[in-house]
Amino acid sequence: MSLVLFSPDKVIPQNLRTTNNMLILRILFSILGLTLFSLSLHAQSYRMNANYYLRSNANFNTSDNNIVGVLSPGSTFTVLQKKVLGKAEALQVRITSIPPPGYVKLAKEYWVYKPNDKDFKQTSTEDNVATEGRSTSEPCPGCTEPAQQATATSTRNTGDIADVSRTITARENQAPGSLDEIIKKYSESDEVKYSINYALKHKKAKSQGYCYRSVKRALFAAPPGKKGLIPERMWDQAALMAKNNLKKYGFINLLDTEPYKTQMKSPKQAPKGAVLVYSSGIPCGETVRDCGHIEIKTDDAGKPGYVSDYFSNDAINETPAARRYGTNYKLVGVMVKK
Amino acid sequence: MNIKIIILILISVFTSVVVAAELPANTMQNLEVFSKKKLNAKTDIEEVKKNLELLLILDDEDPSRTAVIMLSKSYSENSVLYDQAIKEVENEKNSKKLSEIRTILRNYFKNGNG
Predict the structure, then answer these.
(1) Which of A104, A318, A334, B16 has its CA 20 to 30 A from that of B84?
(2) Tens of pLDDT along A230-274?
(3) pLDDT tens, A254-264?
(4) Cα A176 to chain center, whole Å?
């Protein structure tokens, strides 16, 4: 393609076309064309070492509404555009491969937040694009494929984008109901709204020591003629038990599932309506060594609000008291109903 | 009149901040250690009273009442000692709070939180 465009036959006037001139010009144009052709093959490409969200725009600050997929370790992509966000970067990307459990939904654009170089192994570079990625000659921690082979794979993938996009579309259809979609539906469901409202209506100013009892009542609560989030009353004794027992009613623990397992570091990141289960190390009864704590997130990811038998703007392990005096509470379950 | 009310509110806010700030950073850690300690009815009453007063201070700061819950097992093993200490600490001002705290101390370990 480049060679044809830069052929001297197309651009040199007829009267200047001597044999020697044409020969030299052909060589010069060929070199120029080959260089550009070679550069076009070396778009900046990366291989992922961790899970990262794919978003439909470069807005990484608000809720998760723009998440359209997940890049799993081993995923590769080429960079179409870069935006500098302080020390981090926003990359507009063209995906070349996503191994399971990664997935992608159809979107006009795909954006990835690149906070550092650690999880992004650069497999090829474009000369006119400033890059902060790892050089292909550098050793790649946790990477089993040699750098040269990785470059070859990347180049081959760039050439097969149509095939890859077909594969991605097929995989999207196979994706297990797209978990993000399930979470969104759960958060926006009438059952969750009713449950949160019920808990807020019955809350006390301070805990009475019955966080789990209150949460169970809220999950069971339903408007007349409808069913709540759990179909029957639960009679278990300790909040920590909810981590397993809620699974009987179709709840899943997001902390068992990538990418949430890796990325959900704080209860604040949990979606609205998520039932948050904590271990506490505090015993109850003769047999239960860890009674735990439980609360329902009352607002969207990134926003405050937690209710059990009392309401707090902070999750139990992030209250001012917990920060000041330390805490044994550890988030072990972020339960949403499938 | 209004200025007096504002000054009173400011003083009460300032006082509560000072009280909270005076608690050492290892308060919860100390309570946890105490919760596992085998108590002697004769010698440990003062320490129980001290910790009950600590619970009263923390009650204003931490609506989760984690500190109370932490001592529930200790209460179940030493209820006579705790009840005696509660009686000695109790006054008109803290009576309602102490009553709630005692209910949690009595029920949490016995019934769990469910």
Answers:
(1) B16
(2) 999 999 999 999 999 999 999 999 999 988 988 898 999 999 999
(3) 999 988 988 89
(4) 16
Both tokens of A77, joined, read 């992509």
Interface test with B, best of A324, A327, A328, A330 (most B CBs within 10 A): A324
CB-nearest partner of A321 from B62, B68, B100: B62
Query: How many Cα neighbours within 13 Å face the side chain of A264?
Result: 24
Which of B29, B58, B65 minimises the CB distance to A209?
Answer: B65
Tokens read off for A246: 């809620």
Which residue's entry shows tokens 């954006």?
A111
CA-based nearest residue in chain A for residue B75: A284
Distance of CA B66 to the CA centre of its chain: 10
Tokens at A158, concatenated? 């760039």
In chain B, residues with a C-beta closer than 8 Å to the C-beta of A288 are 112
**Interfacial A residues in 264-303 facing B (CB < 8 Å):** 280, 282-285, 288, 291-294
Residues A193-211: tens digit of each pLDDT:
999 999 999 999 999 999 9
Q: Do A234 and B111 touch, CB atoms closer than 8 A?
A: no
Q: What are phi and psi of A234, to 5 degrees?
A: -105, 145
Quick one: tokens of A242? 């909810």
Query: Rounded CA gap, A276 and A163, in Å?
Result: 42
The C-alpha torsion from A294 through A300 and A301 to A304, rounded to 10°, is -60
Q: Could you report the predicted ipTM of this complex, rounded to two decimals? A: 0.83
* Residues of chain A neighbouring B73 (CB-CB closer than 8 A): 282-284
Sequence-distant (≥ 6) Cβ neighbours of residue B19 within 8 angstroms: B57
Q: How far is B22 from chain A (nearest CA, A)?
A: 11
Is A284 in Cβ contact with B72 (below 8 Å)?
A: yes
**Residue type at A334?**
V
Burial (Cβ within 10 Å: 0-12, 13-18, ≥19) of residue A218: buried
Identify the band that residue A135 occupies on the pLDDT scale cut at 50, 70 and 90.
very low
- What are the pLDDT digits (tens) for A266-302? 999 999 999 999 999 999 988 899 999 999 999 999 9
A68, A188, A318 from A299: Cα distances, Å: 21, 10, 16
Q: How far is B1 from chain A (nearest CA, A)?
A: 30
Phi, psi of A6 (to 5 degrees): -100, 25
Is B73 in the A-facing interface, judged by CB distances under 8 Å? yes
Q: What's the rounded mean pLDDT across residues A189-195?
A: 97
